[in-house]
Design a protein that fits this description.
The chain is mainly α. It is about 85% helix and about 0% strand. Helix 2 packs across helix 3, helix 2 packs across helix 7 and helix 8 packs antiparallel against helix 9. The model is unreliable at about 1-5 (pLDDT under 50).
Length: about 325
């Protein structure tokens, strides 16, 4: 009896074990977030640096270790510049709090005047009190604090990167490690390139109309561009509140909205699609689901890392016969070879 029933319930047992393993893994991800998240970021930096140094060695005969040092210097220089630009933008914005409050009140009076012309009754006192309670400047500070908190992890990330490069063996890597590094590095290179392009175009558009916080909004565009679908949409509308405080509902806001929409459409739907091709071979619904999952587990940084993390899991699942159906499901039924 036991021999006949055991094969019958084997798939159910396997599914239950996989659910338990997934639940345990999720708990570990949440519990070890403080250390594991910097480690994953360092791992991606190591992949980029290793691929870049290897390319420099093959293309220009630059010694591998020299290439690693060059990549590390560039990385630290970029982080330092971003930190100085963002801190300066936040200080400038907060120092002008009184001016922005006056502009907000003027804009509110204009809206109330327009509403009265169309016989729309609005409780001006209630609206004014509600707007005054909005923690606008605290929100700006919190965004800056989030970025600063990322920079505080740079020391830990840097230590991880150093140890990874020190432990990099000169012998050939296992096939799975080589495949992971190649695909993830290619994805990150393309995403970084298109994100820089989107940030530069955003900065040019905002600077053209003399938008305050243009540099900070450009950096925010660079970061948000790593979040599939939702990120570019948020980056498009993010400058509108700042423009509204500066100019009110004027042509500058409409011009910036139109130009940024065109920028993200061209970069996201034409350039990125052409350069990235099929990307990480993940189904669009899987991308959205992974975005929600990693955002719940690791917050905003989890949303930024959602696609490469899910792609790594998919490629690992492809190596084992038991988990290959899950890998095919993540790819939308297609198998990558």
């Amino acid at each position: 009896m036991t021999k006949e029933t055991t094969p019958k319930f084997a798939p159910i047992n396997t599914i239950c074990l996989m659910i338990l393993a997934a639940s345990a893994a999720t708990w570990v991800l949440v519990y070890t977030k403080t250390v594991l998240m910097p480690f994953i970021i360092a791992l991606f930096i190591w992949m980029l640096g290793n691929s870049s140094a290897t390319w420099l060695n093959r293309k220009w005969k630059v010694p591998y270790h020299v290439g690693i040092i060059l990549n590390f210097v560039v990385f630290m220089a970029v982080i330092t510049l971003l930190a100085s630009f963002i801190s300066g933008s936040i200080e400038s914005f907060v120092s002008g709090a009184g001016i922005y409050t006056e502009r907000l009140n003027d804009s509110l009076n204009w809206i109330l005047a327009q509403a009265s012309q169309y016989h729309i009754n609005i409780n001006a006192q209630f609206v004014t009190e509600t707007l005054n309670k909005l923690p606008i400047f605290n929100m700006v500070k919190s965004v800056g604090g989030l970025i600063v908190s990322l920079f505080t992890n740079i020391i830990l990330i840097t230590l991880f990167v150093i140890f990874m490069f020190m432990g990099n063996a000169s012998s050939e890597k296992p096939a799975l490690v080589g495949k992971l590094q190649k695909q993830i590095s290619f994805y990150l290179f393309v995403k970084i390139a298109v994100s820089i392009l989107a940030a530069v175009c955003t900065w040019i558009v905002l600077t053209t109309v003399k938008t305050e916080l243009a540099t900070m909004l450009a950096v925010l565009t660079f970061v948000l561009n790593f979040i599939p679908n939702i990120g570019p949409l948020i980056a498009t509308v993010a400058p509108l509140p700042v423009l509204f405080l500066q100019y009110g509902f004027d042509w500058q806001m409409l011009l910036v909205l139109a130009l940024l929409t065109a920028v993200h459409f061209v970069i996201g739907n034409i350039l990125e699609t052409r350069w990235l091709g099929k990307g990480m071979n993940l189904h669009p619904l899987v991308v959205i689901a992974s975005l929600i999952f990693w955002a719940l587990v690791w917050g905003i940084m989890g949303a930024l890392l959602a696609v490469p993390m899910t792609a790594i899991i998919k490629m690992i699942f492809e190596q084992h016969e038991t988990t290959q159906p899950i890998a095919r499901l993540l790819g939308g039924g297609s198998s990558s070879k």
